[in-house]
Amino acid sequence: MATIGWIGLGNMGGPMTANLVKAGHTVRGFDLSADAVAAAEAEGVTAVPGIADAVRGADVVFTMLPKGDHARAVYLGDDGVLAHAETSTLLVDSSTIDIESAAALHEAAADKGFRFVDAPVSGGISGAKAGTLTFMIGGEEGAVKDATAFIEPMARNIIPTGGATTGQAAKICNNLMLFINLASTAEGAVLADRLGLDKQVFWDIASVSSGDSWALRTWYPVPGVIDTAASNNDFAPTFTTELANKDIGLAIAAARSTDTPLEIGEHVQQLFQRLIDQGEGGKDCSMIIKLVDGTL
């Protein structure tokens, strides 16, 4: 069994580390949130006071952080991962961040003699808890292969994507499609209701027809249809609107850098921004339905 350093014990990192502990690994975890640390400790993670303590002597270090700026600070700072880890330690960033930051981390790690992969995930909090995430791993082939062995307790699907930053590219494009699907699901659900369709009957039809999507099956924004939907719980967050806005913003930035028009994606981003402007950024992103039905 391995010694794993983990930085970032939030909604995703916490349950991911719990699955590593269940698999028999020793996990040393660090987070700035005392509540996140306490929750991870309850699942068997060994809490440590700083990055240096998490990475020292570890076989592999995982990071799960909100933004590219956070990832750069954690890896590149004077008291960061590259300053304290041994070069034999494999580095795995599972954050969802911008392509430029991912490229900077790859370059800085290589310059210091580290193996580094970008390995963002799909599947949300429920997938993190169940150990059924999809990992998209970009980097040198040998490092990707080695990372796979550590990732297995957390994943249902582990997919090598190619060279450096391609994991992030895959995640950005996937989430773009997810949020467009979510918006279309909200519009279809509201229209079906106003045309007199029973909500369960319509979902039963759409889920086995061409309107099907992961968003429809997992995040359906009408309460009383899907158990996993935040709509059943006053849109308490499973994936916040702020994070959704951040992720679709990454896709828009990448599109602009490649001269790719994203007219639909830009419209969905504007809907998320409207929710944030109305003070609902901390609510689940499926609350987008309230902009369709006119209740917000």
TrEMBL record:
The protein's name is 3-hydroxyisobutyrate dehydrogenase
Alphabetically, which GO biological process terms does the record hold?
branched-chain amino acid catabolic process
Q: Which InterPro entries match?
A: 6-PGluconate_DH-like_C_sf, 6PGD_dom2, 6PGDH_NADP-bd, HIBADH, HIBADH-like_NADP-bd, HIBADH-related, NAD(P)-bd_dom_sf
Give all residue intervals belonging to the 3-hydroxyisobutyrate dehydrogenase-like NAD-binding domain: 166-291
The record's comment on protein family reads: Belongs to the HIBADH-related family.
Extract the Pfam families matched here: NAD_binding_11, NAD_binding_2
Give the positions the UniProt entry annotates as the active site.
K171
| Keywords, ordered alphabetically | Branched-chain amino acid catabolism, NAD, Oxidoreductase
Single Gene Ontology MF annotation: NAD binding
The metabolic or biological pathway listed in the UniProt record of this protein is:
Amino-acid degradation
Q: EC no.? A: 1.1.1.31
Species per Swiss-Prot/TrEMBL record = Arthrobacter cheniae
Task: Say which enzyme class the record assigns.
Answer: oxidoreductase
Identify the Gene3D superfamilies for this entry.
N-(1-d-carboxylethyl)-l-norvaline Dehydrogenase, domain 2, NAD(P)-binding Rossmann-like Domain
Q: In this protein, which residues make up the domain named 6-phosphogluconate dehydrogenase NADP-binding?
A: 3-161
